[in-house]
Amino acid sequence: MKSQHKLILSSIGAVLVFLLDRFLKIFFQNHAGVKVIDGWLEFSFTKNTGIAFGIPLAQTIAYVIIGLVILAVVYLLIVLLRKKRFFEAGVMFWLLVGAFSNLLDRFRYQAVIDYLHVWRWSVFNLADVMIVVSVLVYFVYMYKQRDKKVDKPA
C-alpha cells in the first residue's frame, strides 16, 4: 500500500478517535461514572483547568502556550507533507487532532473534560492519549532514523 493511502487511513482513524473522544466527553458529563474494574479502571467526569497532568497554569498563559504549540505542529505537518514524509505527517496529524479536541473543551468549558481514570494516575481522555502516543511514536521513529543514518557507510 502506498504511503499516501496509509496517511489517509491513519487520518480517518484519528478523526474517528476524535469523534469517540467528543462523544465520551458529552456522555460522561450527563451520566454517572462507571467502574469497570474496581480500583483499576473507572470512567468518570472531571474538569481539568490545568495543563498536562493537571499542572495549574493561568488560562491566558495556557492559551498562549497551546496556541504556539499548535502553530508549530501545523508548520511541521506542512513541511513533512511537502517533503513526502507521510508517516511523520500522520503522527503529527494525530497529535494535532488530539490537541484540537482539548482546545475545543477549553473554549467551551474553560477546562478540559477528562473521563478515564486508570489506577493511581491522573484522570485523562482519549485526546490526551492521542497527544502522548504521537509524541512518543515521533521520538522513537526519529531515534531509529538517526540510527539508520549512523549505520550507513559513507
Verbal overview:
With 154 residues, this protein is α+β, with helices and mostly antiparallel strands. The protein has one domain (3-142). Helices cover 66% and strands 12% of the residues. It has four helices and three strands. It has helices at residues 3-30, 59-82, 86-109, 126-151; strands at residues 34-37, 41-48, 112-118. A three-stranded antiparallel sheet has the order 1-2-3. A hairpin with a 3-residue loop joins β1 and β2. The chain is globular and about 60 Å long. It starts with a helix and ends with a helix. The mean pLDDT is 90.
Descriptive keywords:
single chain; 154 residues; alpha+beta; three-stranded antiparallel β-sheet; 4 helices; 12% strand
Task: Furnish the topology, listing elements before pairings.
Elements: H1 3-30, E1 34-37, E2 41-48, H2 59-82, H3 86-109, E3 112-118, H4 126-151
Antiparallel strand pairs: 1-2, 2-3
Question: Summed up, what is this model?
Answer:
The protein is an alpha+beta fold and 154 residues long.
What is the mean predicted local confidence, pLDDT? 90
Strand order of the largest sheet: 1-2-3
Which structural class matches the secondary elements? alpha+beta
Low-confidence stretches: none
How far apart are the first and last residues' alpha carbons, in Å? 31 Å
Q: Helix amount, in percent?
A: 55-70%
Order of helical and strand elements: HEEHHEH
Write down the Rg: 18 Å
Q: Count the strands?
A: 3
| SS element count, helices | 4
Based on CA inertia axes, which overall geometry fits?
globular
Tell me the major beta sheet.
3 strands, antiparallel
Q: How many structural domains?
A: 1
Percent strand equals 5-15%
